[in-house]
């Protein structure tokens, strides 16, 4: 058995980490800080405009050393090289994983099967830019000659969450003359509410789907076409009001969209890694090509850092390894992502697909069941809102909930002292979580004895803080790439395929079968379990009561 195929928990570095955990349980943050006046600066790293402070994680120098030894034993460096080198590291789908080529600069080279893919990427970008110029300048007219003022992106999963998150995050940079809407859910309410106040003559739909077969997207696209054609009075109007983003030219043509109005990408771009491909067309329309290019430059800066920096200074590697430590040794089963910037309100939702569809896996690359926990649950809300809701549990609950705080030195919207208040809360939260408040401190405040236990904060709750100068397209690109590569690092440690998503198939297939049963003859025999049968009968109104 080669070193790489060794089960994770039998590796020397894993065993050393286990012993290290058993001896110190990561230590007490109060003591770790008291023992090292410079800890706050030493346990930090910086790259691509992002500063990562991981000093309030329950790690010592020894922990980091052992985690890096684990990364080396698991061959993380070779995995990074394999990804950037275009190897088919998505083994269960036999695909390369080259989203880093989407942001490689023009003129550079990234090879797949002996072919440099960068020119193809740049060619699509150039077409997107020309299209955006025509829409934003008003040169592209709708079927009745009106200028396009509304853009509706129809897509789901990676074909929605990235575009929504990028639009919301970069809204400050957006052309306010364009109304951007996003329709994802097969629930008709999503489409109806997104379009109820729009003039079809001024509305362009972008049908975004890597496969162009996804039930929700195809259903919404058909409804959109019916809505648009009914309002505009001709099938021919589709040419001016629908464009597609897909890898499936046949599917696009069958739907009735001219492939001249299709922006392509490739099977080596996973859906959840596609916001910087043509799937970002709505983003580019909103913020303009120059800002889109700046976002790509931010992604690329983090890619280069990830590819070349030593692990000790490598932000995605450090973040990924600390995530493994928290997940597998501290036993933390969730991670809260807490952006202190209202524009990042959809960032946690975006990260849920990125992290959980990637690392929510139960078998190794070779197909054996894993004998350790893999990806944790990611969730979160922007601060300070969350402080008045779920932070109680993070501070005093019985579970360890590691948190990522994200903050910016400068606000995009200067308003009185709001930003100082916002930032004061970030710093206060991480301090409170790390150091808590002891019984003695609570008593010293004159707290009645019966209330003392209620007012104690244990502290020692692990957090990281990611800080940048300001939320810019570049910063957003770097931030997303940071998480992408930290997910990659974790997948490499856990030995799983972070790029497939077989877990979404069973429900999809069952729904296809059940939809026939909802629409077929009433009273037809149902062959599900008794619960599912009863629910279907109740929905159909054929329950016996
Ligand atoms: O169902 C999961 C999934 O396959 C995601 O991985 C993907 O981002 C999403 O569906 C949408 O797929 P598509 O872009 O092919 O419509």
Task: Characterize this entry briefly.
With 545 residues, this protein is of the alpha/beta class. Helices cover 45% and strands 10% of the residues. The protein contains 22 helices and 13 strands.
Strand content: 5-15%
Question: Overall 3D geometry?
Answer: globular
Task: Provide the list of bound ligands, each named once.
Answer: 6-O-phosphono-beta-D-fructofuranose
Q: Got a strand count?
A: 13
Uncertain stretches = none
Largest sheet: 6 strands, mixed
Instruction: Decide which structural class fits the backbone.
Output: alpha/beta
**C-alpha Rg, in Å?**
25 Å
* Total number of helices: 22
Q: Which strand order do you get reading across the main beta sheet?
A: 1-2-13-12-10-11
- What is the subunit arrangement here? single chain
Helix content range: 40-55%
Give me some keywords for this one.
545 residues; alpha/beta; six-stranded mixed beta sheet; five-stranded parallel beta sheet; 22 helices; 13 strands; 45% helix; binds 6-O-phosphono-beta-D-fructofuranose
Write the layout of secondary structure elements.
Blueprint: H1 12-24, H2 29-34, H3 39-42, E1 44-47, E2 50-53, H4 61-73, H5 76-84, E3 111-112, E4 115-116, H6 118-137, E5 150-154, H7 161-169, E6 179-183, H8 188-195, E7 203-208, H9 215-232, H10 238-241, E8 242-246, H11 249-255, E9 262-264, H12 281-287, H13 289-308, H14 315-328, E10 334-339, H15 347-359, E11 377-379, H16 391-396, E12 403-408, H17 418-435, H18 439-444, H19 452-455, E13 463-468, H20 473-494, H21 505-519, H22 530-540
Helix pairs in contact: 1-4, 4-14, 7-12, 7-15, 12-13, 13-20, 14-20, 15-20
